[in-house]
Design goal:
This protein has eight helices and seven strands. The chain is α/β, with parallel strands linked by helices. Strands 1, 2, 3, 4, 5, 6 and 7 form a seven-stranded mixed sheet that branches. The protein is rod-shaped, with a radius of gyration of 46 Å. The chain folds into two domains: about 120 residues; about 210 residues, Rossmann fold (3-Layer(aba) Sandwich), CATH 3.40.50.410.
Amino acid sequence: MKRRSVSPFSMSFLDIMFCGFGAVVLLVLILNTDTVRARNAVFADLRSEVVRLEQEVIVGREQLVTARNSVESADSELVTTRGEAERIIETIRKLEIEVARMENETLASQQHVNELATDLKSLDEERQRLGAPQPADRDSGTRVRKVRGEGDRQYLTGLKMGGKRVLILVDVSASMLDETIINVVRRRNMDTASKRSAPKWRRALKTADWLVSNLPSTARFQLYAFNTRASAAVAGTEGTWLQAASRKQVDSAISGLRQTVPGGGTSLHHALAVAGKLSPRPDNILLVTDGLPTQGRGKPRGTTVSADERLKHFQGAVRTLPSGIPVNTVLLPMEGDAYAAAAFWKLALDTRGSFLTPARDWP
């Protein structure tokens, strides 16, 4: 039998070739699957990064809007602050002008006083030269009582003590305990005896005693103490007049004032309202205080009062004062009340009264 010839493209060879080709295809599919999976993972990471960046952009835009609003608010506050600064500068300028004018008037007044003192001395010398008899007690005049200061000092005060009906108003608020706010708070919590012995209060009592003692003996007077309300120093004499010539009534008024304990706020409204309640009305008011009032007709809502509010309370109280009555103010020292001196000086000017800030050893 004849053998079949051997061909390199027999079935066995083809099987081997197809098997190898299939293996290659399978390998390619496996490698491609891993590549696609890796690419999808990369794309997912990039997509997450894109989302995160978009969120940051949104947040950044919101913060930008907030920042712009803050800048606009700051610009508005800057404009307001500049306007306020210009107003304050203008106020300071006006006050400087007013102070300069007051200083000029003070110098003129001092010069006038010096001229009067020189004239008086010349008259005394002329009187002595002519041999006229000298009065035994020339300084006493028509004063009710004799009051001496330390070292028997005599002061030219300028206070207008005259008048047929003189109303004396003495501030008995807590601020009369001391000249500083801290010490006022400290003394306010002390016992009654310590309050009455406070140096500033004792000075106020001496001032009131001096005022009463230097009234004309022909005058009628009334002594009122005031803080958040006003009451007569002699109980039961509200609305009536006392006789300066009566030693008993004078001593009772001074004694009643000495029994008062300083405390509470200050209402100048109630103090000046006394002038309208007396019949007939006073023709002279002597006011002893240490600053502008802390309240008006009623009790304030808050616990603190600004300088502008105190000035408004003062102006409101002055409006209730009957016209034609001079107000003579003795202003004792108190820190933190910058408008007080100017306000009471203007009150004296408007009412044709006088204004005095005495030395610490007066009277």
